[in-house]
Design brief:
It is a single chain. This protein has six helices and seven strands; from the N terminus they run βαβαβαβαβαββα. It is of the alpha/beta class. The strands form two sheets. The protein has a five-stranded parallel beta sheet, with helices on both faces. Strand 1, helix 1 and strand 2 form a beta-alpha-beta unit. It is globular. The two termini are 47 Å apart.
């Protein structure tokens, strides 16, 4: 797993990088948009953490670049006003998993990244459409042998559980 953190707050960026490394997630971080863009052009990231101070245009550009390289990207956002950022970015950034208060602990951000990545993997393994009808149980014939010298009788799973 590889995470990219783009944050203007140098202290928070440093603490976030440490928290991600402690959580076992390889991390690259920067407060510069040019550095972040260059990194995203050359590497595939699984998690993108953005400070909402980047501005809407840059957030859109960075997430679009990261999503082109990894369509299953998980984006987390740190915001001063969670409600406003959620309203602004929830439809615009398709990979957005959550918006967190910018004062939240970096360890919590790392845990949210882990949870989002785990949920992403589980969703891939068990895709379910809301309009899909449940499939009927498949009948698999199982041999049942008797102690007498008769032919074996074939039963289905459904019949055995009845």
């Amino acid at each position: 797993m590889h995470a990219m953190i783009v944050d203007h707050d140098a202290t928070r960026l440093e603490r976030s990088q440490i928290a991600f490394l402690e959580a076992g997630i390889h991390v690259t971080g920067s407060g510069s948009h040019a550095v972040a863009e260059t990194c995203l052009k050359r590497a595939v990231v699984d998690v993108l953490v953005l400070d909402d101070g980047c501005g809407p245009e840059r957030i859109a550009a960075l997430t679009a670049l990261a999503q082109r390289r990894n369509p299953r990207l998980v984006t987390l956002m740190l915001a001063r006003d969670v409600g406003e950022a959620t309203d602004l970015y929830s439809d615009a950034v398709t990979s957005l998993h959550c918006v967190l208060d910018g004062r939240v602990s970096p360890r919590m951000v790392a845990r949210m990244a882990q949870a989002s990545l785990a949920g992403r993997a589980a969703c891939k393994m068990t895709p379910v459409r809301a309009d899909a009808a449940p499939k009927p149980a498949q009948e698999v014939p199982l041999p049942v042998f008797s102690t007498t010298r008769r032919k074996p009788v074939m039963l289905t799973e459904v019949a055995m559980h009845a």
